[in-house]
Amino acid sequence: MQYFYQDNHSDDLIVFFSGWGCDYNQFTNLHDKKDILILYDYQDLTLDFDFSKYKNIYIIAYSAGVFVASVFSDFIPNVRQKIALCGNPYLFDENLGISEKTIQVFKDITLDNYLDFRKKYMVFSDDEYERYNKLESLRTIESCENELKVLQRLYNECKKQINPLFDKAVAAENDLIFDLQAQKNFYKDKLHVIPNARHHIFFKFNSFENILNI
User: Fold this and answer.
1) Which of 19, 55, 99, 118 is the most buried (most CB within 10 A)?
2) What is the three-class DSSP state of 160?
């Protein structure tokens, strides 16, 4: 995996496991006092980063990153809180995660229709759509296609290692990628639902710390 590190000279670190197809550019509207480590591009699950200097580490996992965090976060020390955001550790489970129908939607994304995908699945309003396009991922479609294949393989290899325990979870009321009722059934009273939101929920927050404090 790749990462983007922002040193804010803090003793605390927020580790953000981003979603499929993401990069750090999509989250530059969020401004924090804690140090930030954004993980993305899960074409492997290796990471060379020294966590030892941090007294407190907070994990926020988004979308496909919820699965990645569920198999990776046990190797991170001093974790004080884990939050799942718009996703489920059982990523490719037909009932809890992403359906085969939605996976096919991902596979069918091209340079001709990716803007339609963004508007339907990722954002709730025209204003969010305009802001999203200004903060778009800089990755290629080919990179995202390969990542999806790797994630499916890694899920089949690692699903017995999943740690499904998160302290809190957040879902978007209008998410078309992860079924809201399925997330309610899975997370139960740990789930907080954000109204008037689709899958890219980050325009509802000013910082990652806002998400921690939800």
Assistant:
1) 19
2) helix
Segment 125-182, tens digit of pLDDT = 999 999 999 998 999 999 999 999 999 999 999 999 999 999 999 999 999 999 999 9
CB distance 51 to 13 below 8 Å? yes
Tell me the pLDDT band of 73, cut-offs 50, 70 and 90.
confident
Q: CA–CA separation, 151 vs 160, rounded Å?
A: 15
Contacts of 41 (CB under 8 A, 6+ apart): 1, 2, 22, 23, 139, 143, 147
Q: Give the position of tokens 């089949």.
A: 156
Q: What is the pTM of this model?
A: 0.96
Spatial contact of 91 and 69, defined as CB atoms under 8 Å apart: no
